Each structure stands twice: as structure tokens, then as C-alpha cells.
Amino acid sequence: MKELLSEAMDIAREAGRLILEYQQSGFTVEIKPDQSPVTIADRKAEELIVKRLNRSFPEDAVLGEEHGQHEGRSGREWVIDPIDGTRSFVHRVPLFGTMIALMEGGHSILGVVYIPVLDEMVGAAKGTGCFWNGNPARVSTVNRLDEALAVTSQIRGISRLGLQSQFNKFLMRVGMFRTWGDCYGYVLVATGRADICFDTAAHVWDMAPVCPIIEEAGGRFTALSGEATVYANNGLATNGILHAETLRYLCTGGRLETE
């Protein structure tokens, strides 16, 4: 697993360098059918990652956000998001990243997030622990919601999930709330700089890299329903201590206790 993790980190770092070249030289923005933006940097970075993975792990399947599925025979599947936070990338905000995960038996067993502008690398594989720029990473020990920092990518999905009333109460209870989102929010949780990160809308390539990173750093990752899955199109990561209390507010199937 350590060798797999090292290779995935090397590939993510190489893709990040390519993305920075496009950021510095300029690019045009296209809008995909789902109304999300995409650039040549997204596509070329994914092509680079797929090429490297196919060379190193020719028997493994690969699923990429931009180019879809590449079949394999090993039972393992690499899941790629070349630029998580393309909107941030387009606006020259440095909090976007390259994400790579390895799935086996429906479970994410390895995850890497590289933030190229900040040169921050966070990665973990099952049983290895979590590493931040080569050093062990751990979640925070904050045990009170009113002392916690919560982050998210955007809050438009709160109303869509019927959680506006609960979310308003959560905002009143949590110590600090910011929208340092996309993959960087989960990096903050894994490294103990934030305590809670959630997304109301996401894909498997957004969540699969996050799950082992958070868990190996000592935290907890679930869907907003509380289910332990990366396929729910949403996600919640915490330091573990605050998970149950946060789910009281954000769980799509839950109810708040009487205040």
C-alpha cells in the first residue's frame, strides 16, 4: 500500500505541475451539460494521470471525471478528479486540487489530494496513516461544536435537501463557518486546521479520495445520511468527535432533538 500511495502522489504532483503551466499561460472555459466549467487543463491533466496509471497498473480500471471509464481486469479501479474546484481554478483562487483514489470491492482504500498552488500533498492508504507533505497528519481534538470550524464548498444544496431550518440552527451553534471548500476543505480537516467539512452535491471522484484520508488521520467520513459510502452524491468529514452532533443538524433523514 505504501508503494501504491507513493506512486499516486508522484502522479498527482506531475499533474499539478501541468495544471500550473496552463494557469500561467491562459485557457478558455467551456460549460458542460451539467453546467459545470471545464478547461483544457482539466482534460490534459486527466490524460496525463490515465497514461501514468495505465503504464504502472495496466490491469486496473480507471474512472475519470472528464473521459469516463477505462476497463480493467484486476478488480481494482482508480478514480480521478484532475481539478477538483475548477470554478476556483477559473477564478485564480488557489484552493483547487488534483484528486486520485483507488477502489477495491466498492470501498476506497487509497486517496491523494494535491493542492498545486500551495504545494500541499495529503495522502493515505488503509493501514498506512495519513501524511501531509511527508509528515503524519491528524485531525483536531476539538470536542465542542461552539469551538469548531466548519467549512463547505457551497450552500445552495442546503435548501434542495430540505435542510435550511436545521442548517440555520447549525450556523448559530458552530464556532466559525467558512466556505473554504472543494477538496481543500477536507485537507483542512485531515490536518487538524478545520473540524468539519461537508458537501451537499458531489460525485464519487470527489468523495472517494477523501474517505481514506480522513479515516487514516483519525476522523470519520460518511454521507449526510450517516451511511458509510462514497456513492451518495454528498459527504461529511469531521474529526470524529463532532460527527454525531453534526449529523443531528445535517443528516437528510434525521431530526433535531428538542432545543
Which secondary structure elements does this structure contain, and how are they paired or packed?
Layout: H1 2-25, E1 29-31, E2 37-39, H2 40-56, E3 61-64, E4 68-70, E5 76-84, H3 86-90, E6 97-104, E7 107-115, E8 120-125, E9 129-132, E10 135-136, E11 149-152, H4 156-160, H5 164-173, E12 176-178, H6 182-190, E13 196-199, H7 204-207, H8 210-216, E14 220-222, E15 235-238, H9 243-250
Parallel strand pairs: 3-5, 11-12, 11-13
Antiparallel strand pairs: 1-2, 3-4, 5-6, 6-7, 7-8, 8-9, 9-10, 13-15, 14-15
Helix pairs in contact: 1-2, 5-9, 6-8
In total, how many beta strands? 15
Strand order of the largest sheet: 4-3-5-6-7-8-9-10
Gap between N and C termini, in Å?
46 Å
Kindly estimate the percentage of residues that lie in beta strands according to DSSP: 25-35%
Give the oligomer, counting copies of the same chain as homo and different chains as hetero: single chain
Could you name the ranges where pLDDT drops below 50 across 5 or more consecutive residues?
253-259
Structural commentary:
The chain is an alpha+beta fold and 259 residues long. The chain contains nine helices and 15 strands. The strands form three sheets. Strands 4-3-5-6-7-8-9-10 form an eight-stranded mixed beta sheet, with helices on both faces. A five-stranded mixed beta sheet has the order 12-11-13-15-14, with helices on both faces. Strand 8 (120-125) and strand 9 form a beta hairpin. The radius of gyration is 18 Å and the shape is globular. Residues 253-259 have low confidence and may be disordered.
